């Protein structure tokens, strides 16, 4: 037992080397391939960031055009995969459907099972990046009993997702460009975050040589929990439960009460001990979207007041608990018309490129080994049967 480092939650264990994303949690810095997240969110597109994450450099205009064209070639799902949706209950959580459908893709793309081949890994990346908005939107359409909408490959990535979510065969839906831009920003802000639980899960699953679709399904499962990607859904539910600014003190008191398991959702982070830089961009985007749609959402007032109180309260100050990426995202998604149970699906869609970039980086690393942590055994000593 004495030979191993005991580090529950991997608080101080680096599980791998990576050149994709850098976080300085004390300073509130997040860089992808060296570029600050606020600059990427404000000056580039999700597919440009995806290229950067996957290939390590920003694309030239020609490279970006080729990349966008490749992504748009893989957006459809095999028709038999489409039938898989019918096996789910209509009231199934969309994350349950997404997890199942993405895992089932393993049965459709046999070339992607050859994970040792870099070209096959690249094709798997294209397939996943292209198909995730289709799968996500189908999870929604299935839950509301509407027909699936085919992707329209002349639309941008975010527009296409909005089209598949909100168009129906009987209308002429056109995505609002400001909303599409906000959606794209949300995708960028969730694209990667180094060795979080879901990315570590993808790496661990992939370290055995498992196929990429199964690995991403594992990542989706890990993301689902409320301490991770499920926090955006839990945060909006919490804001709705608080309901008005005069009830905030009661909830702050609950969050501080050690006998009460309640936590302020959208607050705190394992790595950030400063303001999450993604939350800053998310808050700005939230104001832009609500102004554009001319929505006065009382939940935004609750969120802003809650943030102010928490940032001044000694409990939150001492524990360095700041709003994280999930704090404002739900208010934007709600304003766009996306139901709460789809929030984590959108997180999964956005994070897929990060997962795939890490999976690819792991396979390209000659030092890659199967992940195999040890344990501290606490059971019985040897005894006779
Ligand atoms: N509300 C109240 N107290 C909190 C909160 C919170 N949201 N977060 C942490 N604390 C307290 C916690 O009780 C503990 O206190 P003490 O030291 O007295 O026992 C201390 O702060 C440290 O918390 P921890 O749980 O040991 O920290 P962790 O690094 O293991 O957990 C976390 C990080 C994100 C799971 C946690 O802060 C949390 O549960 N936050 C709410 C859920 C949430 O918003 N998750 C989204 C994270 S960002 C998106 C993503 O990347 O997934």
From TrEMBL:
It holds the Pfam family Citrate_synt. Keywords: Acyltransferase, Transferase, Tricarboxylic acid cycle. It catalyses: oxaloacetate + acetyl-CoA + H2O = citrate + CoA + H(+). GO terms for molecular function: citrate synthase activity. InterPro entries: Citrate_synth-like_lrg_a-sub (IPR016142), Citrate_synth-like_sm_a-sub (IPR016143), Citrate_synthase (IPR002020), Citrate_synthase_AS (IPR019810), Citrate_synthase_bac-typ (IPR024176), Citrate_synthase_sf (IPR036969), Citrate_synthase_typ-I (IPR010953). It comes from the Bacteria. Pathway: Carbohydrate metabolism; tricarboxylic acid cycle; isocitrate from oxaloacetate: step 1/2. Belongs to the citrate synthase family. This is Citrate synthase. The lineage of its organism: Bacteria, Pseudomonadati, Pseudomonadota, Gammaproteobacteria, Alteromonadales. The gene is gltA.
